[in-house]
Design brief:
- The structure is a single chain.
- Among the domains are: 125 residues, Jelly Rolls, CATH 2.60.120; 78 residues, Phage tail protein beta-alpha-beta fold, CATH 3.55.50.
- Helices cover 31% and strands 32% of the residues.
- A hairpin with a 4-residue loop joins strand 1 and strand 2.
- Helix 2 packs across helix 3 and helix 2 packs across helix 4.
- The two termini are 44 Å apart.
């Protein structure tokens, strides 16, 4: 398996020695894969996603049966099919139309409430915005793929979709255009990312911008006038407010948090940072009964598209008790442990 494109998620999941590494079962396999990851940092995200699947917490999703769906639909239709006094046929038709329009409007409001928004301003600007806890896959007009995390937003002029602004967090797989060498820019409050065609994370949360490069190369222009070039496996963090710049290699010893694919993948991340991810993604507040709880490290995979399941997984991983009261999560010591 020498070819780079063969190192996909399925490859790692099917490799017995990789499973031994993920479960820390065999010293030789652990040593081999730690060394391999050090030499191939561009595959770090795929490696960690595979590890999360192997060692993470699995939850069964229960979907309603067809009979339950049909029964619920029948009840709704029965409520719509009401008896209407019949002074005239036209009034009856008008009343029925009003009922149907009201129902349709209610369904539309529900869809708007639970779906991402795409809309256009008077200046022909396209905006994609996600709700709390929502992750969506987008395909831009130029062929670029964007995975937009919860509580995030991208915007661009329809005449120039390769120059966009980001608020929140997103993963980009930029479509290269060799015929014109057209560049692609991502602009945040702290910096500008300039690329031709590559794959990278951008996170603008917590008054700074973090960029992690998976493939290709990118050029960064900071708001303070400095510039930097990144290669695969590197991370850059910059805050225009504090002027603090960090540029380093990412390896198995580096604490990090990945969020794509419906799973948070954490590597020795303190509970406080994990809960900060939840605060920003779900729009909630977290409180702690003791400061020591903030320091509990978390490693592994946790589902991130359902807050209730996410909380249960964190409780199990940390031995804590998390109480959800309205818009506040209270983290407490669990007397059982």
């Amino acid at each position: 398996m020498d070819k780079k494109h063969n190192f996909n998620l399925q490859y790692f999941l099917n490799d017995a020695s990789f499973e031994n590494w993920a479960k820390d079962l065999n010293k030789n396999d652990v040593s081999y894969w730690n060394n391999w990851i050090q030499k191939n940092p561009e595959h770090l995200e795929t490696v960690e996603n595979a590890k999360s699947i192997i060692t993470g917490i699995n939850f069964n999703q229960d979907y309603p049966s067809n009979s339950i769906v049909e029964e619920a639909l029948s009840k709704v239709l029965n409520k719509i099919d009401i008896d209407i006094p019949a002074p005239t046929k036209s009034k009856k038709v008008h009343s029925l139309n009003m009922v149907l329009l009201t129902t349709a409007a209610a369904v539309l409001l529900i869809l708007i409430g639970y779906s991402s928004l795409t809309y256009f301003t008077n200046q022909s600007t396209t905006i994609h915005k996600t709700n709390y806890g929502e992750i969506i896959d987008l395909k831009l007009p130029d062929g670029t793929s964007v995975v937009l995390n919860g509580n995030s937003e991208i915007s661009y002029d329809k005449e120039n979709p390769r120059l966009l602004n980001l608020k929140g967090e997103a993963y980009f797989k930029v479509k290269s255009i060799p015929s014109t060498n057209a560049k692609f820019w991502v602009i945040t409050n702290d910096l500008k990312v300039e690329v031709l065609g590559t794959q990278f994370h951008v996170n603008t949360r917590k008054q700074k911008t973090n960029v992690v490069l998976d493939e290709g190369s990118i050029h960064l222009e900071f708001k303070n006038g400095e510039v930097a070039k990144m290669i695969p496996g590197e991370m850059v963090s910059f805050s225009n407010e504090s002027k603090k710049l960090l540029h380093k290699r990412v390896d198995v010893e580096t604490p990090y948090a990945l969020w794509r694919g419906g799973t948070y993948a954490f590597n020795e991340i303190p509970l406080k940072d994990v809960m900060t991810n939840l605060e920003l993604t779900y729009g909630i507040e977290v409180q702690y009964s003791a400061n020591e709880l903030m320091k509990i490290p978390i490693s592994g995979g946790i589902p991130n598209q359902n807050l209730k399941i996410c909380i249960a997984a964190i409780e199990k991983a940390t031995g804590t008790r998390i109480i959800n009261k309205g818009n506040i999560l209270q983290v407490q010591e669990n007397p059982i442990y």
